[in-house]
Design goal:
Largest interface: A-B, 72 and 73 residues
Number of domains of chain A: 3
Number of domains of chain B: 4
CATH topology of the largest domain in chain B: Rossmann fold
CATH superfamily of the largest domain in chain A: P-loop containing nucleotide triphosphate hydrolases
Order of helices and strands of chain A: EEHHEHEHEHEHEHHHHHHHHH
Distance between the termini of chain A: 63 Å
Strand order of the largest sheet of chain A: 4-5-6-3-7
Largest sheet of chain A: 5 strands, parallel
Oligomer: heterodimer
CATH architecture of the largest domain in chain B: 3-Layer(aba) Sandwich
Number of helices of chain B: 25
CATH class of the largest domain in chain A: Alpha Beta
Shape of chain A: globular
Shape of chain B: elongated
Distance between the termini of chain B: 85 Å
Strand content of chain A: 5-15%
Number of strands of chain B: 7
């Protein structure tokens, strides 16, 4: 038990995704090949720069933290600088932090510290060039672990300086087994069909699956109904409304609603697109099948543009205009 | 479509020879002398200055034409990166061109626009270009006396252009009317010239606008059609000019003559395309053009390649203006344009967004993700838990070290319920801590607990030695509990 208790009272609860994060490489059940190679690094007390690439929720961050834990022991936090490229304000900030961090040497038999840079693929090409220089400059005292969803967006010179590890989506039985194990630890009753639904909804993303599990458990037992309830609540229903409005030609209303949703809810363009994509194939939206495919393609193009750095709202507004046109053509 | 392609008159009647440049004899003499002697001159660059439309650029082009120079024209946006400058300098001085004599001249239009921009690096880049360039560098400016332009003045031969007189302007307009076989009346030309305030380019544009629509130029038409011209158009005029543009160059001009920069114009267009265009296909075309412009702008940020800006501007001006194909009358329809609603909404929701960002940061740090992921993947589920299970919510709030404001945000309609439990829980926890003895064990989950008991709104630090000591009371209990 991890909760903070006095007698029978649990004072504090944590997010399960963190609470049940494997602490050591030994605890990581999937990604065996990767884990085996990393254990080799631990044994040799040395490692190159690493690049962990793969979809969200496949264990990249967990593996990196576990590697640090196994290298440095319980005090590992002192040896690791965690940065998230999407949260740091530019390469200059990163440079200053790395410089500061690399300066001090710590006792111990491992001659380097680790800079863990998450979402490295969100950095511009220029920033990556600067990062590459940083990696070279401090190679005596630090190793970088870069984490990215899309390895292709990491510039070639960085890729060639890193050992690249590709994380694959977790197997369904692994995800479900982990969810069941967490329920056991928490003494929460769960049903197999509910866990299957969680797996389907989270699309193999372990962190999302655990979040959904925790939210469903807040309702009592983890049942299919509870899972659907929390997922429904977590995803604003306005998305379908916005699409229906656009398809029925009410473009301006749809646009205003979308803007409110994004600003008030803090929804990103990607969130909106993913939900739109789900809606497109739901039976509640009455559309000819071939039109679903056309819209899916539009959504995909818009998501691609946003990943490439375009503005959420402009791209989504253009998409809504296209939906309005499709709606017009269907009605005549 | 069957109409032959037309060249705008300001291009068609651009002076080909120095003699054709109207009434700037002093400036012509000074400039020609400087160009003839180059590179044996005191200053490697010249700065031609004077009011808009008085012939600065025309003189450069006419002189280049007469002396056989190829003009390499650069925009302010080319001066964002030092590497660009070097590339330009090499391109202009190194390789010989395929055609002509290979003599080149660099023209930087409106350098006074640069100092106003955020990137002061642009100015430095120009100085660098002047220093390393092996060809003449000619700059133009309306107002060169800005303090920030002093370094440019120091390295440049300053050549003043005077404002053209009304008669100068009328003379040119008359000649164009004759060549175009257009009936024009003196009072109408006088009106156009008066209004242009010596800006010949503006006058020619006005003349063309009137002549083109009606085939003749008379006073009543001129008065009805020509609105007073401002040097810089406000956002509403900009939109009006942009949407009503018949030619691509007019649409592009609408943005160059605007107070809005392209980022602002993007927001104004986002809201107002739907106000102007009613046909759904036109609407789709216009938004598609705007979204293409936005894609280019995104790529500029990603790659740092400012060459792409030109295409972004083409798409957001000409692309939008020429989208009205089904219902071209929409272009001229009077509509009330709206201020970008996004900006209003953002300022209204500033506090709540700041709070959400704070929550995201706390969670991001706890769970080792970016705050964007926290916002997208975690906060929605936390909201669900906070509204459905206040008891559990209070424990999570304590575990994550959330402030009361954050709890209120997450709990929404249930906020008083969750808050009450949160306060009770904290109270019980404090009492418990006071009873517990001291002993040191490692922290893991404990930092958050202590901070939750402090009134601070955000938690910034990670575990440090110093903190660890303070937390000894907490830690003791962790050890017991871990058995």
């Amino acid at each position: 038990m991890w909760g903070i208790m006095s007698g029978s009272e649990v004072f504090a609860e944590l997010l399960w995704a963190e609470k049940y994060r494997p602490k050591s490489l030994k605890e990581i059940v999937n990604q065996e090949e990767i884990v085996n190679r990393l254990m080799q690094f631990v044994k040799e007390k040395n490692m190159p720069h690493l690049l962990f690439a793969g979809p969200p929720g496949t264990g990249k961050t967990t593996t990196a933290l576990a590697l640090a834990h196994d290298l440095y022991g319980e005090e590992w936090r002192k040896y690791v600088l965690e940065l998230n490229a999407s949260d740091e304000r530019g390469i200059a900030v990163i440079r200053t932090k790395v410089k500061e961090f690399a300066r001090s040497r710590l006792p111990g038999d491992i001659p380097f510290k680790i800079v863990l840079l998450d979402e490295a693929d969100n950095m511009t090409a220029d920033a990556q060039q600067a990062l590459r220089r940083l990696m070279e400059m401090y190679v005596e005292t630090t190793r970088f672990i870069l984490i990215a969803n899309y390895p292709s967006k990491i510039i070639e010179p960085i890729q060639s300086r890193c050992a690249i590890f590709r994380f694959t989506p977790l197997k369904k039985e692994d995800v479900i087994a982990r969810l069941r194990w967490i329920c056991d630890q928490e003494k929460v009753k769960c049903y197999d069909d509910a866990l299957e639904v969680i797996y389907e909804i989270s699309g193999g993303d372990m962190r999302k699956a655990i979040n959904t599990l925790q939210a469903a458990s807040a309702l009592g037992e983890v049942t299919v109904a509870h899972v659907y309830k929390v997922v429904g609540l977590a995803h604003p229903k306005e998305i379908r409304e916005i699409m229906t409005l656009a398809l029925s030609g009410k473009f301006i209303e749809a646009r205003d609603k979308l803007r409110n949703l994004m600003v008030n809810y803090g929804l990103s363009g990607n969130d909106v697109l993913k939900q739109m994509h789900r809606e497109i194939f739901s039976a509640d939206l009455k559309l000819p099948e071939e039109v679903r495919v056309i819209i899916a393609d539009y959504i995909g193009e818009i998501q691609f543009r946003i990943i490439e750095g375009a503005d959420d709202e402009i791209q989504l507004t253009a998409l809504l205009a296209k939906l309005a046109l499709i709606g017009r053509r269907l009605s005549t | 479509m069957s109409e032959p392609r037309k060249i705008p008159w300001i291009i068609k009647y651009r002076p080909k020879r120095i003699a054709e440049v109207v009434n700037q004899e002093d400036a012509k003499m000074k400039f020609v002398e400087w160009l003839r002697k180059w590179p044996n001159v005191a200053k490697k660059a010249t700065l031609l200055y004077g009011p808009p439309g008085c012939g600065k650029t025309s003189l450069v082009e006419a002189a280049a034409n007469e002396f056989g120079y190829e003009v390499i024209e650069l925009n302010a946006s080319d001066f964002r990166r030092r590497t660009d400058i070097e590339r330009i300098a090499i391109r202009s001085s190194g390789a010989r061109s395929l055609f002509g004599t290979g003599k080149k001249l660099i023209l930087l239009d409106e350098v006074d626009g640069i100092s106003g921009r955020e990137d002061s690096g642009g100015l430095e880049a120009i100085l660098q270009l002047i220093k390393i360039s092996s060809v003449p560098v000619v700059m133009t400016a309306n107002d060169p006396w800005d303090q920030r332009l002093k370094p440019l003045r120091d390295v440049s031969e300053m050549i003043a252009f005077k404002r053209l007189s009304k008669d100068d302007v009328i003379k040119v307009l008359k000649r164009i009317c004759e060549l175009e076989h257009i009936v024009c009346y003196n009072d109408a030309l006088e009106f156009i010239a008066e209004k242009s305030e010596g800006d010949l380019r503006a006058a020619i544009n006005d003349l063309e606008a009137v002549a083109e629509g009606y085939g003749k130029v008379e006073l009543s038409l001129v008065k009805a059609l020509l609105r007073p011209r401002d040097r810089e158009h406000d956002p509403f005029e900009t939109l009006r000019n942009l949407f009503s543009a018949k030619y691509a160059w007019q649409a592009k001009m609408a943005l160059t003559q605007s107070q809005l920069d392209y980022e602002q114009a993007k927001l104004w267009l986002l809201d107002n395309i739907a106000q102007q265009y009613t046909d759904i296909e036109d609407l789709v075309r216009a938004y598609d053009a705007l979204s293409r412009a936005d894609v280019y702008l995104g790529r500029i940020i990603k790659t740092g390649d400012w060459d792409l800006l030109a295409y972004a501007i083409d798409m957001m001006t000409a692309g939008v203006a020429l989208a009205a194909q089904n219902n071209p009358k929409d272009k001229y329809r009077w509509t009330r344009y709206t201020f970008p609603q996004k900006l209003i909404l953002l300022s209204k929701t500033k506090d709540i967004r700041a709070l959400r960002d704070d929550i995201a940061r706390v969670i991001a740090q706890h769970i080792h993700t970016s705050s964007a992921t926290a916002k997208a993947d975690i906060i929605p589920y936390l909201k669900v838990i906070f509204t459905l299970n206040p008891e559990y919510a209070a424990k999570l709030a304590l575990g994550l070290g959330l402030s009361e404001k954050m709890v209120e945000y997450l709990a929404g309609p249930m906020k008083s319920e969750v808050l009450r439990r949160y306060r009770e829980l904290k109270q019980r926890y404090r009492e418990f801590l006071e009873k517990t003895q001291q002993e040191v064990v490692k922290p893991e989950t404990t930092t958050q607990l202590t901070t939750a008991l402090k009134p601070s709104t955000t938690r910034k630090t990670r575990t440090t030695e110093e903190k660890r000591k303070k937390e000894s009371s907490l830690l003791s209990f962790m050890k017991k509990e871990k058995k």
